[in-house]
Amino acid sequence: MKKFIYAIVAICGLLSLSACSGDSLNTEPTDSMSGATLMSDGVKALVPLNGIYRSMYTAGWSTTGNTHQCFGISAYNLMAEVMGDDMIMGASGSGWFWYDAVYDVKDLFTRSTWRSYDLWKAYYTWIANANYIIAAEETMGGATNDKNYAIGQAYAIRAYCYFMLAQTFARTYKGHESEKCVPIYTEPTSTSTTGQPRSTVAQTYEQILSDINKACDLLQGLPQQQSAHMSYAVAQGIRARIALVMEDWATAEAAAEEAIAKSGKKIIKVADFIGLNDVTKANVMWGAQVISDQAGGYASLFAHMDTVASYGLGAPKMIQTSLYNKIAATDDRKAWFPELSPYSALVPSEWNGAHLQRKMYFSDPSQWMGDYIWMRVEEMYLTAAEAECRQGKDGEAREHLMAVMSQRDATYTCNKSGKSLAALTNESTGSLLEEILLQRRIELWGEFGRMYDIKRLKQGFLRKAEDGWNSGALLTGRPTTNPENWMWVLTIPQAEFDGNTSMNLSTDQNPLDD
In angstroms, rounded to a whole number, what is the distance separating the alpha carbons of residues 62 and 72? Predict the structure, then answer.
C-alpha cells in the first residue's frame, strides 16, 4: 500500500491540501507552515491556526471516500452518538453513519475510506501542524499576548487531539493505564522522522495533561478572538472533560467552574437557541461559524440531522423511547423530540410512535447553512455537578444541576443524594449521580458523543425493540452489556503499520473482535 503524509497549508485562513510520499500517516506540514514567514510573530501564527480550525469542519480531506460522513469534529461526535444507546437511526439510508451504529467498521482498517483511517489521519494532521507552531515558541517574536494566544491554542489543539485519539483507539483510562494507546509526537515531523511505538494509556494522558495545563497557563486572561478558537475557558472545559475520564473529580470540578466563570457565557432557555446552529448565542463557548462558501452541502452535520432535508429525512435520528419518557411534560426540551407531526407525511408508517429529533437543523436549508457547536456552558454546569456528587458534595451538586434545570423546567425539583450507578444505562438506582447523568444525556443529546460517556462510566447498555430500535441495529449477541468489551475501540489503520517501523500489525493492532 502506498504511504502518504498529508499537510494542511493555511493561506489567509483558507485550507488547501497536498500529499507526498512518507513514512506513515503521521503528518508533515510543508514549508509554508514551518518557515519563519508565518511563525515570526504571534499574529502571523494565527494564519496556520485558522487553517487547522477550518479543517475541523471541512469534509473531503481526511479520506479518499465516504466524505459525506467525514467532516471533522462534529462527524466524530455524531459517530459516537450513534454507537451508543440514546440516538436511533431510523434506517440505514445511504449508509452514512449506519456502519458506525451497527459496529461494522473495525475490519475495514485496511481501507483509506473508513473510520480508522479517517480519524487517525485527521487527529494526527492537527497534531503535526500544532507541533510546528509549538516548535516556534522560543524564537517567536511579537507582543507577548499575541505569542501566548497562538502557542496556547497549539497546545490546546494537541491536548484535545491526543485525548480524542485515546478515547477512540484505547479502552478508558481508569483500570487500563498500562494498556497500549497511541504513538506520541511532540516535535515537527518530516518524511525522515522515525515512527514512534504505541505509548501506554498512562503515558498518553501524561502528555495530554502537560499540554492542556500549558495551554491554560498561556491563554489565561486573553480574550477569545473567534468562536472557533480554543480560548482559556475552552481549554478549561477540555481540561474538565479530561478529568472526568481520569476520575479526577476535584480537577473536573475546578476546571468546569473556571470555564463557567471565565467564558462569559450563560445558560439560556431552549427557545433562545433553537436549531443549535448559531455560535453567537449566549451559551456557546466553542464552535465554528460557517459562512456560505464554506457550507458542506450533503457532507455536513445538518444534512444528517435535519429531519426535513437530505439524509436526515431518509435516515432520521430519533431518541430512544425510554429516554424520551423520562423528559417531563413540563420540560422545554420535550419540544426537541416531536412524535410525528408535522412530519407525518414524510416518514414511513413503521415509525409511528417514534420521536424524531428537531433539536439540530439548518439555519437556512436552501443554502445548507448552520454553525457547528462544540461546547456549551450547560455542559460545564453538569460536569461540575457530577464531579461534586462524586466527592460527596450533594448540596453543591444539586445547585449546579438546578442552575440548568431551572431554565428547562420551571417545576423541576431534586432532593436525591448518593452516587450509586447501575450496571446498565437502561437501569436506575435512584441516586443523585444518575439524575445528573440523566439530565446530561438529555441536554447533550446529539452533541457530545454519547459513547465517550458510556466508556468512562464503565456501564453497559441494551438496545430494545420497544425503545424504537429496528431489528438491524439491536446488536443481538454482541457484548454491549460488558463495559470491558473491545467493540468500542477502533482498529488502527493499515497505513500506519505500513509506514511506521516501530509498530507491528501482529502485536500492536487492537482486537478485531468484540
Answer: 8
